[in-house]
Specification:
- This protein is α+β, with helices and mostly antiparallel strands.
- The protein has three domains: about 90 residues, Integrase, DNA-binding domain (Double Stranded RNA Binding Domain, 2-Layer Sandwich), CATH 3.30.160.390; about 90 residues, DNA polymerase, domain 1, CATH 1.10.150; about 180 residues, Intergrase catalytic core (hpI Integrase, Chain A, Orthogonal Bundle), CATH 1.10.443.
- The chain has 16 helices and ten strands.
- The strands form three sheets. Strands 1-2-3-4-5 form a five-stranded mixed β-sheet.
- It is elongated and about 100 Å long.
Length: about 450
Amino acid sequence: MPTLNFGRRELAKLHPAPGVASVYYDARTPGFGLRFHASGAASWVLDYRPHGGGRSAMKKRLTIAARDAMQLETAKQAAKDMLAKIRLGADPMAERQATRRGVTVADLCESYLREHVRPKRKSETVDGYQTYIDNWIVPEWGKRKALSLTRADVQKLHRRMGIPRPEGCGKPGAANRLVTFVSAVYTWAADNGALPEAFPNPARRVARFKEKGRERFLAVAEFAKLGEALRLAETDGIPWRPDPAKKLKHAPKEENRRVVFDKWSVAAIRLLVFTGCRRSEILNLKWESVDFEHGMLRLPDSKTGPKPVPLSAPALEILSKLERAGVYVIAGQSAGTENEKPRTDLIRPWARITAHAGLKGLRLHDLRHSFASVGVSGGLNLPLIAKMLGHADIATTQRYAHLSDDPVRAGVNTIGATIKAAMDGAADNVAKIRERVA
């Protein structure tokens, strides 16, 4: 393995035998050499052992550039830069091969869904990720090489998604979750060899938007409004008015402008109110999972795995009076058929009912928050609430802690009244304060 101190004069003296391949190495830059091909062409090369080196790693040879295309000083600096990255675990040849294979951002995301998400996550999670891919990632970067994506690219899309209209879409929460998804895709790809391990994650250190808490809790008066609207929805119907922007040739008379919703959609909303369950848990609930004898729902699967749900008397009453139209408690359009599927949403009835009740902005998931808030305000402790809601981590339930401050406030008032009475000389009218024994 001939070596010499690379310089223009030294290299100019090299005249390898024609038809014979040979390599000369620089004595001052490990692995950096000039390779002469049998054809007579020459190129700058770098021999290295990937992933930080070590005898156990197989030596690789990377062509930096043709001799005529790059000056010695530039090629040597490129070799030094690569060696620095190799010491940190990089593999330049693997990076180049990945680029040449043409792995696109869209390919990478689909592989992540197919190989990692679908086998381990629930269908709702898969659907959510697929939405990010279809609506944002493919239109923006779908055909881009996966290794070409940069932090600047991610920051640009994140900003456009999150800033208010008209410049952006005004979806800071969705923008933050998209960045989290991209980060997960690239981390998985590096861990599984789909991308070089040392490739910098383009979503790393992208500053997220601050998000406002969206939890909303129904007050007593709002529960009453919701109850009234639900009763109307399944009896006389929710009144509606034609959109003034749309011209209707045959608009029904005002007394006939009412929408009556089916018993199952109304029952679904009531069950969400009285159980604190997630929407998917109620819509996918089968009659075989309802244990009337013990007053329980025995969910075979939920966000946190199998889950028993104790039923209150109102919830049991709803279930006992509900007609059975198929295997699912909340019957959908395919109820009773061979290929019956669960109902997928409650968007239309929920929008009509909340609009009539004057509960603007109330989400179905807020019913779960409201269930928890009533429990906490009634004196139930957080671990118990966590068990009712099926939270795997008590930290998730901690968001409701502020709702239990009424007993604390009452205690503070009692202590303050006692101390004030003592200071005012009216200690006989309050509980005696025991002296501390020194």
